[in-house]
């Protein structure tokens, strides 16, 4: 066996030329008569260093990045195959990089280490241990472990995962379902994609444990249609999981049953809302359902259904392997465990950062993000996706915690953090929030369908100086109507970014 060289295979790395780098490495090794083993691993989440090439030097994996195909001959000249660090792109032992050493990676402990579709790699890094433990427990005992962990939904509402599971567990039904919301549509978010592309068995394991917990025998991954790499990797992993006995009618010889498949989403942001998602899975147009009944009682095809997003389900194997307390020991207040935060926008060091709840926005953006990519002063940050508020500097010392953010009227959401320097026009961003809603609304309720259209019109009048005072008052009333009257969070949260601009950046509405 030759020197092991790792080149990532996820979407981000591919977008900056990882395939071409891999081809160049193989060709250069052949030209020099060197024996190498090229492994396509997942990204570590240090996106500003992609393509990040790693070499197994025997005492750890040394890294080089960002590598372009034309850099490869020079890297070999400098001793790449031996792990030499005598090159300007050398980054040292990747495990000792401060971006990684300052994190608490529970959910993302394997990404970058393994071949994503290798079951052997997954098992070598504690994979399927949670499932093996779950197979020995009653459904109620599994639900209790998730409740004791304090895990909350890593989406919008942050509802306690164990309570949702308890409801499905306690509801009678001849068929129950586990549905994974993998329609990751929030701006600045990519953690779900990294799970599916870099550690797909983690999601498979988490969903299977959920099925055992509530008595569901069928699961669906509702996958964003714009994620073709994740689609391919998930289907490969599912096929191998069936071959290995981790899915099907006799899981690991226990007689327990769980089937799982991928369904492509409809390309609509509204289908990230759980009831609209269920309509889409049923083959209908994605329209928000009135609640009650809750999906946990009457969900997919009218049956009791667990609907969780990728990060919620991906946290479950750790809990069943290491224990509920081991997970709950991280975090603060009612926000337990870790949250994968995603740094995007005008940021110098964009990427994935998994940390226990409690770090402040300022520390996150400075220590990990390294400030703005432009080098200009940071002016605002939007947390929680396109429906999150624009947070001014006076709020950056707030710990990232569901309750502390709620006190400010802000949302943690899916953990997306989008940074803006002082050239941003937040009046334009406020307009975009309303315009986004006009495009993505399902159209079922009037406050969302009509309110967003009127919102764009009123903001345009304000910025044009047309009867400014009266229209500002009208915009405020319109936002309140949408918050209080919309059927779901699409219309109910669209005013949040608008209201934050009115409150914290009113000068940008001058036009």
Could you please describe the fold and organization of this structure?
Strand 12 (338-345) and strand 13 form a beta hairpin. This protein has helices at 11-15, 18-32, 72-77, 98-101, 119-124, 129-134, 139-149, 161-170, 191-198, 200-214, 228-243, 274-281, 310-322, 324-328, 361-368, 402-407, 426-440, 446-463, 468-485, 489-493, 495-504, and strands at 3-6, 36-39, 53-56, 61-64, 90-93, 177-182, 218-223, 259-264, 305-309, 331-332, 335-336, 338-345, 351-356, 378-383, 390-391, 416-421. The protein has four domains: 3-97, Glutaredoxin (3-Layer(aba) Sandwich), CATH 3.40.30.10; 119-328, NADH-ubiquinone oxidoreductase 51kDa subunit (Rossmann fold, 3-Layer(aba) Sandwich), CATH 3.40.50.11540; 331-421, Ubiquitin-like (UB roll) (Roll), CATH 3.10.20.600; 426-510, de novo design (two linked rop proteins) (Up-down Bundle). A five-stranded mixed β-sheet has the order 2-1-3-4-5, covered by helices on one side. It has 21 helices and 16 strands. By secondary structure, it is an alpha/beta fold. The mean pLDDT is 95.
């Amino acid at each position: 066996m030759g020197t092991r060289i790792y080149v990532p295979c996820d979407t981000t790395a591919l977008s900056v030329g990882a395939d071409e780098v891999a081809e160049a490495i193989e060709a250069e090794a052949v030209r020099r008569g060197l024996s190498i083993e090229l492994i396509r691993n997942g990204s570590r989440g240090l996106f500003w260093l992609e393509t990040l090439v790693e070499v197994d030097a025997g005492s750890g994996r040394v890294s080089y990045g960002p590598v372009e195909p034309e850099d490869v001959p020079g890297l070999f000249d400098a001793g790449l195959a031996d792990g030499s660090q005598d090159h300007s792109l050398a980054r040292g032992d990747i495990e000792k990089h401060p971006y990684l050493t300052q994190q608490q990676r529970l959910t993302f402990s394997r990404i970058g280490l393994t071949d994503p579709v290798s079951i052997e790699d997954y098992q070598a890094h504690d994979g399927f241990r949670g499932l093996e433990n779950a197979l020995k427990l009653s459904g109620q005992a599994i639900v209790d472990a998730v409740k004791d962990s304090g895990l909350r939904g890593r989406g919008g509402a942050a509802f306690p995962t164990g309570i949702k599971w308890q409801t499905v567990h306690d509801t009678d039904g001849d068929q129950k379902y586990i549905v994974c919301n993998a329609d990751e549509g929030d701006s600045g978010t990519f953690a779900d994609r990294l799970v599916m592309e870099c550690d797909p068995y983690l999601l498979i394991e988490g969903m299977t444990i959920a099925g055992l917990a509530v008595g569901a025998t069928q699961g669906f991954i509702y996958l964003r249609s714009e994620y073709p790499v994740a689609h391919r990797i998930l289907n490969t992993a599912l096929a191998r999981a069936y071959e290995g006995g981790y899915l099907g009618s006799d899981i690991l010889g226990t007689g327990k049953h769980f089937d799982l498949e991928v369904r492509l989403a409809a390309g609509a942001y509204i289908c990230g809302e759980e009831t609209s998602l269920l309509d889409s899975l049923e083959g209908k147009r994605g329209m928000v359902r009135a609640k009650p009944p809750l999906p946990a009682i009457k969900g997919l095809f009218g049956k009791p259904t667990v609907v969780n997003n990728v990060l919620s389900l991906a946290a479950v194997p750790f809990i069943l392997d290491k224990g509920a307390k081991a997970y709950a020991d991280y975090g603060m207040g009612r926000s337990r465990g870790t949250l994968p935060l995603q740094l995007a926008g005008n940021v110098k060091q964009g990427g994935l950062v998994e940390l226990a709840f409690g770090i402040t926005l300022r520390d996150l953006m400075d220590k990990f993000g390294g400030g703005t990519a432009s080098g200009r002063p940071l002016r605002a940050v939007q947390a929680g996706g396109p429906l999150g508020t624009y947070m001014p500097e006076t709020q950056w010392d707030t710990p990232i915690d569901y309750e502390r953010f709620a006190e400010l009227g802000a949302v943690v959401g899916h953990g997306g953090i989008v940074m803006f320097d002082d050239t941003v026009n937040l009046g334009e961003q406020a307009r975009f929030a309303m315009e986004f809603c006009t495009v993505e609304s399902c159209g079922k309720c009037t406050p969302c369908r009509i309110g967003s259209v009127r919102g764009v019109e009123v903001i345009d009048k304000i910025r044009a100086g047309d009867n400014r005072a009266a229209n500002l008052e009208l915009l405020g009333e319109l936002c309140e109507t949408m918050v209080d009257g919309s059927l779901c969070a699409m219309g109910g949260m669209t005013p949040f970014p608008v209201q934050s601009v009115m409150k914290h950046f009113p000068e940008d509405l001058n036009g």
